[in-house]
Amino acid sequence: MMLKAALRKAHPMPDPIQRVALATPPKLAHQIRGLSDRTIAWLFVAPTIFLLLAVNIFPLIWTIRLSLTNFRTNRPNNAVEWVGIENYRKILTNPDTWASLQATAHFLVWTITLQVLIGFTLAYLINKKFRSNDLWTTLIVLPMMLSPAVVGNFWTFLYQPQIGLFNYFIAFLTGADPASFSMIGEVALAPWAIIIVDTWMWTPFVMLICLAGLRSIPPSIYEAAECDRASKWRQFWTITLPMALPFLMLAVLFRGIENFKMFDLVVQLTGGGPGATTQLTSIDLKREAFEKWRTGYASAYAVILFVTVFGLASIYVKALNKVKDR
Amino acid sequence: MKNFLNGLTRFRRGPWEMLATILIALGVFMLMQPFALILFTYSFVVTLIGTVMFIITSHFPE
Fold it and tell me: Is residue B12 included in any domain, yes or no?
């Protein structure tokens, strides 16, 4: 009461903080004043930790538990049996799962290689000052802003053997008949069809990150190199590339994780076909979980993918920190 | 090599993290290689051991 009176006397029109202080019941205010800094810090962090546990940790633990059972979501009334590591054994001896992991590896290696090479080259060129620089940057970034469903849909039209512009462009370059090949209908071409679309869509993302890296290099380093008569080639290998490397590695990490779980674009383009040529792990997993309704099996599959991505990301982050410290 | 083995016996972070990294990389390679199904079968165990080892050994002293 004394505090309230003192505050009112000092400030006839209290500000919002004071208003909250005045509205706090004296008993509660006394209790809060008795808390240590550490306890107050924990009180502030607790909601976030609770949310993290509820949204991330609990589902993970639940998935691990389900992976050791024969639970099926479409038969909730059936008795759930504990099957131990049987689901893991089935997955890891299944040639179809092996094939989908190989398809994912092919997709990952080529998309990341192409995106890094083209993205870095574009960033290097855009970093040079020239007229309509901003316009080019905006145009290059456009594909990244589109929805994967839209991109998948219009690339399906571009890949049409009869009317597709892509086929006509290839025919113009090679002299082949445009209707003689189908990018999304042939076993040999379909994996490349999804690689081309993903590269087209996500190279701008790599370019933006590389551009940030290139723009962070102080011009004084290049000026010093010029004074030492270092050639442009030498400047690129000893200044540009090492200083942009952490950014490049970050782009590879983001794209690697994202492409490991690639789903929407490929489903829209090929639906995993022809056959199972472009059936990436996420598509395979979705079919096991929501078409065959083998929830326990799909959970084990998800755990295997999680451990793989987690392990890779751990060593990658360690390497990234080493490069940054250098 | 001698330093590496010494580090392992003294539970130093560097060599143990290196070993865990090799195991994870080997496990991922085994998971995605197109050569032998038997390698694919044991890939998860190798990756899991590597990942758990990495989490534990990152708390070892330098």
Answer: yes
pLDDT at A128 over 60: yes
For residues A93 and B36, give the distance between their C-alpha atoms in angstroms, rounded to a whole number: 11
Which two structure tokens, joined as six digits, stand for A97?
Answer: 């799962």
Task: Supply the pTM of this predicted model.
Answer: 0.83
Are the beta carbons of B51 and A102 separated by less than 8 Å? Answer: no
Question: How large is the average pLDDT for residues A38-61?
Answer: 93
Evaluate if residue A268 carries a pLDDT over 80.
Answer: yes
CATH number of A87-325: 1.10.260.40, 2.40.30.110, 1.10.3720.10, 3.40.50.300? 1.10.3720.10
Alpha-carbon gap, residue A216 to B9, rounded angstroms = 43
B28 contacts A314? CB cut-off 8 A: no
Query: Contact, A259 vs A210, CB < 8 A?
Result: no
Query: Per-domain residue ranges for chain A?
Result: 2-66, 87-325
Measured distance CA(B26)–CA(A310) in Å, rounded: 14
**Best to test chain B binding among A307, A317, A321 (most B CBs inside 10 Å):** A307
What ipTM, to 2 d.p.?
0.91
Does position A1 have pLDDT exceeding 60, yes or no? no
B13 in helix, strand or coil? helix
pLDDT at A81 over 70: yes
Q: B29 in a domain, yes or no?
A: yes
**Which residues lie below 8 Å from residue A128, measured CB to CB, with a gap of 6+?**
none
